[in-house]
Sequence to fold (402 residues):
Amino acid sequence: MQTITDEIRKSMAGSSWIRKMFEKGLELKAKFGNDAVCDFSLGNPDVPPPAAARAALERIAQEAVKPLGLGYCPNAGIPAVRDVFARHLAKQQGMERLAAKDVVCSVGAAGALVAFFRATVEPGDEIVVIAPYFVEYGSYCGHFGGRLVVVQAKENFEPDVEAIRAAIGPKTRAVLVNSPNNPTGAIYSAETMRAIAAIVEGKNARRDSRPMFLVSDEPYRAFAYDGAEVPAVLPLTKWAVVLGSFSKTLSLAGERIGYIAFNPAMPGEDELVAAVTLTTRTLGFVNAPVIGQRLAAALVEETVDLGVYDRRRKLMAQVLADAGIEFEMPKGAFYFFPKAPGGDDLAFTEALADELVLAVPGRGFGRAGHVRLSCSVEESIIERAAGGFARAAAKARERTAK
Fold:
């Protein structure tokens, strides 16, 4: 009896390495105890929300007990919330003009991407993505017949502009970028982003119909260190689409609140906004959670204590350096993507697990030979893992030398 589709069965067989390591962590914690395992597998923000969240929730609670206080809202979001998000994004993106009508509230950044792909992707369409990349992108477009065309970034994780140009073909529907990047922590330069936008503009100028979009996935935009700046993408081309969430910046991951914003100069923008509003409803999201919308709007100019993540970043860098593990210092987000000693990311991941240290193999993000480490853990866990990193790295090198 076949109860599920072949496509989903295939997806289940190749399920996310993040999920596999999460399950491995549960197994190890059950056997050795929670405190014995150093788990760097999940990007689950653990820093408390801003202090203002308590008062904001109290105000929301007072409104919630009124009739329809927690009822349905328009599919695109509460109008006043869309207006707040639009003003915030106009300032963030350096836009002279951005109105509530240009923004749709979404069920996280993931919900924004899925709704956008449902509105724009036909079977056979291609989405150009830069590896390393977030593992779920393939599913987000694949549900609607799209497929990823993967372009490897340079050694320092900066996009290879000419490789992107070469990867674009007649079926390309979007170039999808993620900066600050998960899993590398790289922040793509302003020069690179301008070059990618120019490619999109140039290619669209020669198309009769069905333009391609430059889609920027920005849930980690606030996480930039050592004076690094995250370039604004929305003004770079009229075909720009920017989406993000408040999961990381406000530690509201469970509230599932995000947004998608469109350059108002885009031809057919009103129709595209209406289409994404429709797909938000018909995919079953209906509308972004009302409490989360109001909470994010109240805190939109706030962030969690980013200094906590920066201290962890510096501590992790020291631990990796002491273990002789090569890495690019992340400029943003809260991940490291170091090289696996010996070159085999699966073998190194296994060696780490033997030391009760959990990492995710880089092949799960489109770049084998590396591992991803999340710094959304306490400093004491990073310190406690130092010996495990050193021993696992030594074991991996010994195996390669044989």
In short: The radius of gyration is 21 Å. The domain at 72-298 is CATH 3.40.640.10 (Aspartate Aminotransferase; domain 2).
